[in-house]
Amino acid sequence: MAILFKVNHAEPPSPWEQYFDNTYFKIYEDDPWGSWSTDRWLGEDIGGGEQYLLYIEPLGTWHENYRPTKMRFTCNNTSYDEFRITMRDNAQNVIVNTGGYNTKSGDEITITFNDTGEPDDDKMRQIEFATYLYPGFQFEITNIEFLP
């Protein structure tokens, strides 16, 4: 007689850390594109019906001395799913620039902090999401995660 055992393994916790909602980010004050709506960030038409932007910046102090190596986002988008992502540190150094409109929801984006010696070059300052959409559509960012 054989005795069979079933062993259930719990999923290991994800190494990705979620910093998503309006308790962690706000619309970037120096260039305010986009908005927060209940449970998602919304891109804003910059005035031509095709290019949409969302510029956000960290809120509070959680991002101080936080230097993740990667970022990914989730987008609920119905017309176009390729973005240009730019991130800057507090000294306005570019720490992410994906170049063209080729980054998709769920892609892992490498973050490279610059050790320039400038004050605050170790803090995230802003994240810019840009895409082209058919007129009348809008993109929604429903999650932002970082890999320490």
Q: Structural class of the secondary structure composition?
A: mainly beta
> What's the CATH topology label?
Jelly Rolls
**Helicity level, as a percent range?**
under 10%
| CATH hierarchy class name | Mainly Beta
How many separate domains make up the residues?
A: 1
Report the oligomer: single chain
- Average pLDDT works out at 86
Compute the number of strand runs. Answer: 13
Biggest β-sheet strands, sense, barrel: 7 strands, antiparallel
Q: End-to-end distance, in Å?
A: 50 Å
Shape: globular
Outline the structure in words.
- The protein has strands spanning 17-18, 25-27, 35-37, 40-42, 44-45, 51-58, 70-76, 82-89, 94-97, 103-104, 109-110, 124-132, 140-147.
- The protein is an all-beta fold.
- The protein has a single domain (17-147), classed as Jelly Rolls (Sandwich).
- Strand 3 (35-37) and strand 4 form a beta hairpin.
- The relative contact order is 0.29.
